[in-house]
Amino acid sequence: MIDLYFAPTPNGWKAAIMLEETGLAYRPILMRLSEGDQFTPEFLAISPNAKMPAIVDHAPGADWGDDPVTVFESGAVLLYLADKTGQFVPPRTDLRARKALMEWLFWQVGNQGPMAGQLSHFRNYAPEGDRAYGFERYLGEYDRNLGVLENRLDGREYILGDYSIADMLAFPWAFIAKPLGASLDAFPRVADWRARIKARPAVQRAIDLHKSEQNRGQHRADNNTVLFNQSAASLRSRAKGNRD
């Protein structure tokens, strides 16, 4: 059994999609981020960055020893699960395909994901008077990344050719383009790729997981300092409190 620490966000969907696709038995543990579940000592022991998704694998296999394995950060979670199951990942012996996988995993977690996350903040959660510059800045970066993906999908149905964890990582932030104030009209290959992935039953189950708990704008930077506007000092204070 795998414990999945999860909230219904694009990053949470990544891990849920992989678990649904592989058929691994898992238990979703809903993280109420607006209430600070991510700052509990128990969760910080699993995910020191105070972010979900994270997993605890209670049966990792003989190579890992007897203790459960914890994994945080979405890219690491999906790579761990892919290597565990041998699914949705090139074999380790195919060095060129493995190299391409790593390039696109790092692209997603270092470019598409962070830029889309900031766009989401300035589109949906920042104070009204502070939105305009940030929205325009990150919309440009979001579109730039859509262009990168559009070019990659020329002659391919999926990022690596076959459906893989690279697609699972990139899909959620393309899936919510409209709520981000963006459009896929100029990116027809991305739109078709998005539609192919959205149609997969495992993806639909993951997106529906705890759907009623989504933050639809009710928790914003101007009314929830637990979820937004966290300073380095406040995080250090929480960490110190957890050690005491």
Please write the string of helix (H) and strand (E) elements.
EHEHEEHHHHHHH
Q: How many domains comprise the coordinates?
A: 2
Q: Report how far the terminal alpha carbons are from each other.
A: 31 Å
Strand percent estimate: 5-15%
Shape annotation: globular
Supply Rg: 18 Å
| Low-pLDDT segments, ≥5 res | 231-236
Total count of helical runs of at least 4 residues: 9
Q: What is the number of E strands?
A: 4
The CATH topology assignment of the largest domain is: Glutaredoxin
Characterize the largest beta sheet: strand count, sense, and whether it forms a barrel: 4 strands, mixed
Mean pLDDT: 91
Question: Strand pairing plus helix content: what structural class?
Answer: alpha+beta
Summarize this, please?
This is Glutathione binding-like protein. The protein has 244 residues and is an alpha+beta fold.
Describe the structure.
The protein is an alpha+beta fold and 244 residues long. The protein folds into two domains: 2-89 and 205-243, Glutaredoxin (3-Layer(aba) Sandwich); 95-200, Glutathione S-transferase Yfyf (Class Pi), Chain A, domain 2 (Up-down Bundle). 51% of the residues lie in helices and 7% in strands. The protein contains nine helices and four strands, in the order βαβαββααααααα. Strands 2-1-3-4 form a four-stranded mixed β-sheet, with helices on one face. β1 (2-6), α1 (10-22) and β2 (26-30) form a beta-alpha-beta unit. α1 (10-22) crosses α8, α4 runs antiparallel to α5 and α4 (95-125) runs parallel beside α6. The longest helix has 31 residues, at 95-125. The protein starts with a strand and ends with a helix. The relative contact order is 0.15. Residues 231-236 have low confidence and may be disordered. Residues 1-89 form the GST N-terminal domain.
